[in-house]
Amino acid sequence: MVNIVPNNIQLEDDRTGMTVSILKRAFLDNLFYVQAKFPKIATKNDYYMALAYTVRDRLVNRWLNTERTYIEKAPRTVVYLSAEFLLGPHLGNNLISLGLYNVAKQAIEELGLNLADLLEQEEEPGLGNGGLGRLAACYIDSLATLEIPAIGYGIRYEYGIFDQQIKDGWQVEITDKWLQYGNPWEVARPEASLEVKFGGHTETYTDEFDRYRVRWVPYKVVKGVPYDTPILGFQANTANTLRLWKAEAPESFDFEAFNKGDYFGAVHEKSDSENITKVLYPNDESYQGKQLRLEQQYFFVSCSLQDAIRLMKLQNLAPERFHEQYAIQLNDTHPTIAVAALMRLLLDEYGFDWDRAWNITTNTFAYTNHTLLPEALERWPLEMFGNLLPRHLEIIYEINRRFLDRVRIKFPDEIDRLRRMSIIDESGERYIRMAHLACIGSHAINGVAELHSELLKKTILHDFYEMYPEKFTNVTNGVTPRRFIVLSNPRLANLITDRIGDGWIKNLDELRKLENFIEDSGFRQEFAGVKRAVKRDLAEQIRDNYGIDIDPDSLFDIQAKRIHEYKRQHLNALHIITLYNRLKADPNLDITPRTFLFGGKAAPGYYMAKLIIKLINSIADVVNHDPDIRGRLKVVFLKDYNVKFAQRIYPAADLSEQISTAGKEASGTGNMKFSMNGALTIGTLDGANIEIREEVGAENFFLFGLTAEQVLALKASGYNPRDYYESNPELKLAIDRLDSGFFSRGDGDLFRPLLDALMYQDDYLVLADYASYVECQDRVGQAYRDSDRWTRMSILNVDRMGKFSSDRSIREYLQKIWKVPPVEIQVPEYTQSNG
Ligand code: GLG
Q1: Is 313 a catalytic residue?
Q2: Catalytic residue among 56, 344, 370, 471
Q3: pTM of this prediction?
Q4: What is the strand order of the sheet 424-425 is part of?
Q5: Atom 14 in ligand 1: which residue has the minimum CA distance?
Q6: Residues 705, 663: contact at Cβ < 8 Å?
Q7: What is the pLDDT of residues 281-294, one digit of tens each?
Q8: ipTM of the complex as predicted
Q9: Residue 83 backbone phi and psi in degrees, to 5
Q10: What is the rounded CA–CA span in Å between residue 378 and residue 36?
Q11: How much distance in Å is there from the Cα of 459 to the middle of ligand 1?
């Protein structure tokens, strides 16, 4: 092999050296030669870019050596297929992984700049909606840290999740032009582009061995261009690749039109192709049956599978070993078309017979389900599907036919079961049920928390569980402590490391050593001091951005997540109104001062969620301006909640609101991030809350509300929300005040849709859980007054969160599903031969 780094490069080269003086030189060099700016005319963004390139240079050697090792050793590889990767800013995270944070900070300061300002400058890649996309990002971080050969494949959306503004209390969506000033972390690889076919029809023919074969004649072809981003492990040499696909028009495609003189038409077609990766669908927990969305899914899946096969060629491996080479995880049903796409490649392009192709396919894929909500289960109208992917539809029919034969054998004479389990939903207009295809085409199926995995088996996937019990398993979600403690809460990280060393960053169970310090009042004081300092920072930021003064000594009660009725931000709102009403009734009432903070985006087409945002802002308007309330309650809706902002929010929370209707939140991951940073949780027995409570201890968790079982029982017995309204005076007053227009300048109609939903329907049992929630909140308020006791509880939350590292989750996937061993990457010194 050829040297990838010339022999004559000095050990302490400007592109690799890690000392303050070299970093300064490299930074100025990049400013000059890459940004083409000198300090007098450089913008903050130029400085950010110069630093980003300086850091990127320092990880290229690991990245290329990782790639080279994978090509040479051809190790078994995890492929994480996900339509969303909600990465968050790269710069800070890479500084931490490289162990360069403090050195860079000093270098930047010596140049008269401020590292925090430059970190703030980075426009984050918001290529996801919420938990599902962020989980994918945590998982690729852990895969690299654990030195596992892995590739993340996804979509390079030109516009990620919209930016949220608030106008007159309402959400307004602004396009997210995250690429407008360039992206220093990606490398385009146009030479590795691939083609993806769409539409058209199929033909049969007999090949040279007289075998019956099918050929797909597409209507159009789109080019997929890969953009690679290095994902560096923490204190590891492994730098895996996240490969995101951008759609373009193939140069040759419009030739005919071009030759006919239709130059304009030919160029116009080009934008059609590029539309495929233009924008992320902004719906969390609900799918939109739009053709473009299906095109996105097939586009990135087809590129990724072709790419994986191409890599095998480079490794001298034949395609029949595909399942030995790759463990492919389907992150929800979004990439599930991969089951049919791999079958098509193996059957039509490589000439395998059905059984062989099916064996390879089912041994390759595993499927993670992230939700039980029916509105989130993807199904594609059959006709649309067939028009876009005619050959895949034929293959799905055949998969279904063979599958239903097996069902018939295992469960004879059960017509209804066949109807329920078929991939094709024929109850009305016909649909393809993607979750069924995923279950049939995968060897493993997992939920994302214990309760969720149990409910999958009992409810939506019950038939599949009876058919294939051995496929079902659980892997409880986790989050990366690198981004969500070390980077976001350096004060806490330093305090922990000061007491127990830094082993916890890679082995989060070591946090348990903190328990030795719980009786040390000095430690408790320092711990409380960290929280106070972080809260002061956030208060300052809120004052600067919103002109609202919040008291850092008040209890910070925070709910930050997508806005959804099942997450029940409106239950939180009813509690705020209740406290307000109590204070109005008795202005001398002695309550614990609280600051309620909310953050979260609503899907643009989800009216009720948008009305909840307006509700919170309307309550804030009244509460924050009422002189009777001064110093006791504040309410702020923080706009444009994203990863960057989340990193500031989690460390500042005293109380974390995890109040979904039991049985609805598959796992939650924000719940973990809050608790790791010392927030106490008020929560229902839902998703991962249950496991968090088990770990931290029931005495360090504020539990309220109905259980998932009780929710079902109550609904079955005929739930009447009005009864709760009639019989609870505080609830009645809260609702009546909303109804009277008290919080909407006299407009009694404004919140009517929300109130009607609560009073007549209340699918999410807000009124049923209200009393229990308010009673629990009263206990929270009391507990906060004993600050030393609160601090002990807070320390124990941090101490006992080891389980919720994404490293643990990834180890479980490796052991239960992927069976991929780690590969150590050697990084030769720069002066040695790098051949
Ligand atoms: C889903 C679920 C969350 C879950 C996340 C990651 O709603 O409960 O934590 O995936 O598994 N749409 C989501 O965010």
Answers
A1: no
A2: 370
A3: 0.97
A4: 379-381, 431-433, 424-425
A5: 131
A6: no
A7: 999 999 989 999 99
A8: 0.99
A9: -70, -10
A10: 48
A11: 18
